[in-house]
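My current task is to audit a protein record that another person submitted. I need someone to confirm that the token line plausibly describes how this chain folds. Take the sequence as given and treat only the tokens as open to question. This is what I was given:
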Amino acid sequence: MKKMIKEKNGFTLIELLVVIAIIALLVSIIIPALRAAKNSAKDIMCLSHLNQIGKGFTLYANNNKGNIPKNGGTAHDVNIFWILAFAPYVGENFQKFEDYTRSEIFNCPRYPVPEQTVDYIISSWGKNLDGSDEADARTKLTDYTNPGTKIYITDYASPTYKDASGAERQRPAGIIYIIKNYTELQTNRANLDHHNPLNLPYTKNPSSPTDIDYWRVEGDRHKRDGSNAVFYDSHAEWVQKDRHTPQAYVIR
């Protein structure tokens, strides 16, 4: 009489737990790698946008007697406000200024607030390191003796940030504005430029808890402790936070 051999079907409980543990381990390894790859792609896209803006403002200058816009304030004609001035030179042909929100060029994929329509900020620095001579809306490129070392446009800071303890903090009113449409752009565009050392991720006193409160230039958006920027010679690159000094923005 033949003995009945009982076939083994499926996994034992221990085997199942081992498989689950292996899958969990793989997921814990893969997800951070995928997140890092995704962020790296966004960093590259942001830098690509600034490279396009660099080429665009050079074309603008060629058609405007070597002049480029500097000031984001409301005291100047809307036609020379930098975003709207550069739009035709970066492949954007708006029928109306209100249509600027359709453009992706002025957006950084790493900006934490999706509703923000302008993720970059322009320098309106003059010749004084303390920013007491804010430059007018039009400045000649030839005024810059070292255009490859002077920053023209860079990442706009976020309305919130994490302090040294990791707590989320809100920047003071009037520093960073979320601009979702053309009406808000008209009202708040004066905040899309900077000419004051307090606006920069740079400080003579790192222990001061208020320095970071007034940044308009982002200090740690890409690769940690740095941000992307476009220079007056039209090239764009990542700039370490400590390089964002008044000397990097002043005309001479």
